[in-house]
Amino acid sequence: MTGKRKCKDNFVLVLIYLSAFFSETLLAAMIVYVFVRGFSAISLPFLTSVSSVLEGTVGIAGNIVNTLYIVVLTLFIATPIGIGSAIWLNEYAGKSRGVRLIEFTTETLAGIPSVIFGLFGMVFFGTTLGLGYSVLTGALTLTLMILPLITRNTQEALKSVPDSYRSGAIGMGATKWYMIRTILLPSAMPGIVTGVILAVGRIVGESAALLFTAGSGYLLPKPGTGLFHKILESGGTLTIQLYLSMSKAQYDVAFGIAVVLLCIVFMINILTKILAGK
Q1: CA gap 193, 271 in Å, rounded
Q2: What is the pLDDT of residues 223-272, one digit of tens each?
Q3: H or E element in which residue 52 lies
Q4: 50 DSSP β-pair partners
Q5: CA–CA separation, 148 vs 109, rounded Å?
Q6: Residue 246 CA to chain centroid, in angstroms?
Q7: What pLDDT sits at residue 233?
Q8: How much is the CA Rg of the chain, to the nearest whole Å?
Q9: C-alpha distances in Å from residue 95, one per residue of 81, 154, 177, 272
Q10: What is the 3-state secondary structure (H, E, C) of 53-70?
Q11: Structure confidence at residue 227 (pLDDT)
């Protein structure tokens, strides 16, 4: 009986190793293929200029700026709302039926396809509120998409803090909000930061929702108009430009953008590891 069980364990272990090897090989092959096809398109003018027929240039500087705008604006809106919601659900709301309903709704919201968020954002933010195709419309739509991610990660991070921290602080006379602000949040910060950075990864890689909301503008902000004027203009991100380049059969440009996106994803993962370690 022991021999049969050991054979089964070894067989399952071999399957696990084969699955891991297949996944890693597939990922490595994809990364190598993208870099081989796209690395030749990467140059300083490609990264620092915009595409222009008159000047004969091909560049993605405007798309990089648009991506940064949408990332910063989305996080500026979603992070305090997501963390605040998680604190209320975990520390104040208790275990009522309403709380369970909110958590179920949050998990359901996380599973909705991004194209549906895009349609909703286009109709509500773009048409009803009159924002049109703009960076702000895209950021508000992405806020709805990443709120469940930030909220659930913050909840899990708060739950991982031992209850003795809470009871000890309250027993020493601290108010609940003081305990949350000075003890719980610093203790849960690695999990919170990980959730926020994962949300950044989803923002950077999103295309379907932004195609309906942010538009495909690729120009840099006009001099003298100010930084905030850009958020009301159309702004295509790197993923939008990659899609448009593929649809126009500009494969070298598309693979060059893919290389830039992969580098950004790598940096996000490295930053996640560093911040979580600290």
Answers
A1: 10
A2: 766 667 788 888 888 899 888 888 888 888 889 899 998 888 888 778 77
A3: strand 50-52
A4: 60
A5: 7
A6: 23
A7: 85
A8: 23
A9: 21, 17, 19, 31
A10: CCCCEEEEHHHHHHHHHH
A11: 67
